Amino acid sequence: MNFKSNKLRDAVIIALVATGATGAVQAQEAETTGATNLDRIQVTGSRIRSVDTETQQPVLVISRDTIEHSGVTSVGQLMQNISANNGFSMNAQVNNGGDGSSGVNLRGLGAARTLVLVNGRRWVSALDASVDLNTIPIAAVERVEVLKDGASSIYGSDAIGGVVNLITRKDYEGAEARVYVGQMGPGDGQQQAYDFTMGANSDRGNILFSASYSKDDAVRARDRAISRNPTFGLTQRSSVSSSGVIWQPVDAAGNAIWPEQFTNEDDYYAALDNVDMSVINNGADSRDLANYHPYTTAGDGYNYASDNYLLTPSERRSLFVQGAFDITDSVTFRSEALYNQRESEQALAGFPVTEGFYLAGTRGLDKDSYFNPYKGTAQARDLDYGRRFTEQPRIYNQDVKTFHFYGGLEGVFNFADRAFNWDAGYRYSRTDQNDRMRGDLNTLNLNAATGPSFMDTDGVIKCGAPGAIVAGCIPINPLSTAGSINQEQLDYVMFTAHDQYQNLSKSFTANLAGDLFQLPGGMAGFALGFENRKESGYDDPDALVAAGYTSGNARKATAGAYTLDDAFLELALPLLSDLPGAQLLELSAATRFSDYSNFGQTTNSKFGFKWKPINDLMVRGNWSEGFRAPSITNLYRGNSDSYINFGDPCSSDWSGYTADVQARCVAGGVSPTFVQQTNAGLGYGGQTIFPFTLGGNPDLGPETATNYTLGFVYSPSYLQGFDIALDWYKIKIENAISTPSSDFILDQCYVAPDGDRSYCDSSYFVRDGAGRITNMFLLPRNLAEREVEGFDLSVRYRLPDTAWGSFSFNWDSAYVSSDKSRANKDAEWENAVGIYTQDTPGWRLSSNLTTDWTLGDFGVTWTMRYRSSLSESCIGTSAAYLAAGLCSDPDKLGLAGQPDPRNHIESVLYHDVEGRYNLPWNATVAIGGRNVFKKDPPLAGRAFANTYDYSYDTPGGYYYMRYTQRF
User: Fold this and answer.
1) Mind listing the pLDDT tens digit for each residue in 762-819?
2) Rounded CA gap, 755 and 459, in Å?
3) b or e along 538-575 (b: 16 or more beta carbons within 10 Å of the residue's beta carbon)?
4) Alpha helices in 656-741 (DSSP H)
5) Residue 362 backbone class (left: φ over 0; alpha: ψ -120 to 50; beta: rest)
């Protein structure tokens, strides 16, 4: 957009910049404010500007054209498709446990070990240090640079798996409006996106404004055959029925028993042999025991998947402004500001309530309740019951507002015939999140509603007893059939939880870079800088949640902060150039000193080289140290409840219950006849009936890492437009922050012959007099280790123009040769390559091949996305897995000839296609699709809830249309 009046144009730019508009900075082409810097650029992974775009470290660049032709509407979707994103990343397909955010997981090391930058500066993170990529509007992004190497010496904490640097559009001139609509093949999952971007440049500065809106509709699990009946855990239905169920403990003879019959609790559990479950007949009077029938999973279990989302809905609004103004010929003011709001939702089946002494609830259905079928009989007693409140599904809503501001000065100067550039600025980023949850029960009201009640003389059932009515209480019948609890009763026993979160990051940075002295290969360069940063945040749960008076998991508030001071120095030393066998030889070194308020000091260094024996070939390599500081969640997480699945090795029915294990259990006070109790009955394995405790650990230290890379880039002069890069990498992480699993803790205490018996301490778990584990403290510790090794291959070829158009090919592949971890230094290594465990697809090969063709105003882009096959264990349940078609090799033998049945999870190949046409009125229309051949994700028995893993595409294919109008 060109203003006719330079004065008006400059005035508008000055006014907008003064109100917070701002410009992109680092990792962009250098400003033309100084002649010595015209051709120098700064690439992600270094603070030193150079005329050479080929770097010592492997960097994947995703251009604006590639972004537009990918057919995605968010940065999160874009990044989860790259080959280096190996493994699970939070995304919109995560319903149970999701929060509407979307992340990136380089090398499969976790989102917290991938540093996300915007214009070379840190972006605001969540309490767990992950970054929601969808807070960055895709319309404002010029390109993405993905550094596939560690960079803690340059950027500080978190840059272990790599760095994602999103660079916003800087010198854009003009205006454009974009409309995008799409939907899944079956007609659901509609997406719409609208954005408007305007930019202007002058002799003194530039300005960019971008506004965007997007809305993604839901896809229900019940609307796809693949997820309509989940295979997770090989139990397609929940044991908690939508109609009332009486859980009746029985002794070995099948006789009903209840605690009141025994003088102490130990005698009760000694007599307990099993539990019978009886469910009310549909529409029958639950007060008559003749109206019940024995529970069966097939006939009475609840299909929880029918209420789940496969693709969660969300709505995003964003405003982004940036600008720059040249105060003088050598000093520029830069600023940028963003506001982003996301509203998202997840849905689960109505809450499954299980109450009673056996079920470790409070009291169960009171013996004097009007609805208790034993009321007034000789067997009057409190009843253990279960019922899923399907009248009200659980709905989780997030309203997330993200604010970002950066303002600073930068400039260039010459001194002693040397060129220098500098910058100094202040960054403020904050996320405020308000969550609402409807569908949990207020247990105080539930206890009152299922307590003593009676039919009053007016024919109304009331809480309490005649003459002692409990005011305000509304009785309910938890043994009633599905759909019979009315809205008034639901409103009494349920509540809407309101939780608040905040993440705040503030920093001041100052950097100086330039030339040092002449070397045979060129001018030595340096960069040094300082950063002062403060991270703070809190999680303030609803008062009822914090007090533990809800049917959901209780949790205490989280709040904490830490500050740090960083200083770094980087050197580039071009030793040789233009010599036989050394067209270029350059060394680099960097070191960063960090002083944290919570754990102390750490220094991390890096050394690298770049060697061109001939002009067409560059060999490169790096060695670097890295670290990850513990997050606010790691350090200060308030204790929260968690009901997990685990197997107690002291359960006498366990197949591994040897004489040695029994001896250790007995020594720990557990009876040799003890049998584990779970929410599904008696027997080894299953979900605990007691809440275990998750929490933070303020004594945590940083993770430490060592990164290695070695590779080459070949660009043959005889084949113009062709480049191939192959890089080997290895990452070793020590003192990794992890939470020891319940299985690991119990294995160390009871099973492993040379186990660490300190895990038997009450700081890890406690048992009651009956031997049951009533609590386990699952806290993060610096114990684990991780090693990842593999290769990255990148091939690019742009053919010379032909009469049939222009063709280009981009092929990016990530091959993982080793990915092993262990819980501590004394544990055995476990390999994850090619293995599927819940939420963790350990793909050996991830590969993307993109072909682009243009002919005049026409263009077509075709991308193939490949993810290799996996194997999952079906040990211990091979018959059930086989019956479900999820144990393809049930007779496989493992180490020492032990049974190791496995299931093969097939590879996938997705096809994404876009066709486009440039219209005569400066517009473009595009029609495309992702997964156009509707490839279903492979089934996996260990995939949580939805039969397949979240990292695969939502089944059904997706098709879209995009219209772009330029002005």
Assistant:
1) 989 999 988 999 999 999 999 999 999 999 999 999 999 999 999 999 999 999 999 9
2) 65
3) bbbbbebbbeebbbbbbbbbbbbebebebebbbbbbbb
4) 659-667
5) alpha
Q: Over the stretch 649-673, which tens digit does the pLDDT of each residue have? A: 999 988 889 999 999 999 999 999 9
Q: How far is CA 806 from the centre of its chain?
A: 39
User: How far is Cα of residue 345 from the mean position of the Cα atoms in its chain?
Assistant: 16
Cβ atoms 1, 200 nearer than 8 A: yes
Residue 226 makes CB contacts below 8 A (sequence gap 6+) with 936, 937, 939, 947, 948, 955
d(CA 34, CA 52): 18
Exposed/middle/buried for 629, CB within 10 Å: 0-12, 13-18, 19+? buried
Evaluated on CA atoms 246, 252, 257, 263, the torsion sign reads negative
H/E stretch holding 667 reads: helix 659-667
Give the domains, in start order, of the chain with CATH numbers: 10-221+312-346+399-435+500-636+699-739+780-869+906-966 (2.40.170.20), 229-308+348-395+447-498 (no CATH), 647-687+742-769 (no CATH)
Alpha carbon 119 to chain centroid, angstroms = 23
Which runs of E-coded beta strand occur in 457-543? 461-465, 468-469, 494-519, 522-540
Task: Tell me the C-alpha distance between 634 and 444, whole Å.
Answer: 32
Report whether 94 contacts 184 (CB < 8 A).
no
**E strand residue ranges, 127-190:** 141-147, 162-168, 174-184
Distance CA 832, CA 840 (A): 9
How far the first Cα of the chain sits from its last, in Å, is 8
Distance separating alpha carbons of residues 570 and 157, to the nearest angstrom: 17
Tell me if the pTM is above 0.85: yes
Q: Look up residue 207 and give its amino acid.
A: I
- Joined together, the tokens standing for residue 305 give 């998947």
CA 226 to each of CA 200, 222, 305, 906: distance values in angstroms, whole numbers, following the listed order: 50, 9, 11, 15
Contacts with 332 (C-beta within 8 Å, 6 or more apart), sequence order: 31, 33, 205, 324, 325, 326, 409, 410, 411
Give the rounded distance of the alpha carbon of 923 from its chain centre: 37
- Give the three-class secondary structure for 410: strand
